[in-house]
Amino acid sequence: MPRVTISDVARIVGTSKKTISRVLNNDPNVSDAMRQRVMDTVAALNYRPLTSARSLATNRSFMIGLLYDNRSPSYIMEVQAGVLEACVAQHYSMMVQPLVSTAPDFVERVDDILSRHRPDGLILTPPITDHPQLLDCLQRNEVPFASIAPRHCGACIGVMLREREAAAEMVGHLVSLGHRRIAHILGDPEHGAGVWRLAGYRDGLKHAGLKEDPAYMVQGRFSFESGVAAMRQLLALPVRPTAIFAGDDDMAVGAIWAAAEAGVSIPHDMSICGFDDTAIATQVWPPLTTVHQPVREMGRRATEELLLRVLNKGEARMVEVDYKMRIRASTAPVP
């Protein structure tokens, strides 16, 4: 069966190929009636425009690049799902590129990606969102990008969450259960999330009239393995904490694993909570008390803002999404 072409669509609708192209590219200067006729015909003929032809006609690649350097597979999978959802809605493709932001050739690697694939824009995830040399390179070369949870918003577009406030509320939850010896497994200090969640932990202690104890603040790296190591360090203290707030779910699950290894019952002997509410939070036992960060929505919203800028369809901005507390079985009153 011969492939349906844009000429076939134009002939049946009774208009020009240019008008069909304008409809397919969401040009606002087309009447609603014409837009409906075109889309009905496109659906009836099962017409699929060639990306190469669209690219030649518009000087765009119709591709968005997602850059990440994150050790949490569950987080990245959720971000990818959201980015892809927004791309599909605008007939865009998504390119996913893992990178090492601390590598000496990091900016050169990104520049090579831009040269070879020519994406119309980039989605940056933490900690790439705060890489000064990369941001300078993108701005200097006028490459559109949107940031997810940047530490410094400035003139950035993208999406963010009130992470400091959420972390403080989680500490308040532990205090309400009677806990006073509350430890924190810190996230990566290069991530804005690591900084904000530590600040929220401190806010929560201060609000409860509790003093910080450096022994209860152990460095993690937003990974399961770092959660295991941090928990072993906390369990070795002469006076153990009764509750632990981990900077993300992966570290919290690592802490639960290390607790089981040591024969510590969660939450009977110790409460543990996390942050993000990724899939792993309900796959572990006991199910994890955590802060629901709508990661998939954040990926989608960041991409929508980026495409607003790329397609000149409106004013792109930094949007804020809400968090929710997810109280589950990993936290309980102090023993």
Please describe the topology of this protein.
Blueprint: H1 6-13, H2 17-24, H3 32-45, H4 51-58, E1 63-68, H5 73-89, E2 93-98, H6 106-117, E3 121-124, H7 132-140, E4 145-148, E5 158-161, H8 163-176, E6 182-186, H9 192-207, E7 217-219, H10 224-235, E8 243-246, H11 249-261, E9 271-273, E10 290-292, H12 295-310, E11 318-321, E12 324-326
Parallel strand pairs: 1-2, 1-3, 3-4, 4-5, 5-11, 6-7, 6-8, 8-9
Antiparallel strand pairs: 10-12
Helix pairs in contact: 1-2, 1-3, 5-12, 8-9, 10-11
Can you tell me about this structure?
- The chain is α/β, with parallel strands linked by helices and 335 residues long.
- It folds into three domains: 53 residues, 434 Repressor (Amino-terminal Domain) (Orthogonal Bundle), CATH 1.10.260.40; 127 residues, 3-Layer(aba) Sandwich (Rossmann fold), CATH 3.40.50; 131 residues, Rossmann fold.
- Helices cover 44% and strands 15% of the residues.
- Helix 1 packs across helix 2, helix 1 packs across helix 3 and helix 5 runs parallel beside helix 12.
Provide keyphrases for this structure.
335 residues, alpha/beta, 434 Repressor (Amino-terminal Domain), Rossmann fold, 3 domains, six-stranded parallel β-sheet, four-stranded parallel β-sheet, 12 helices, 15% strand, elongated
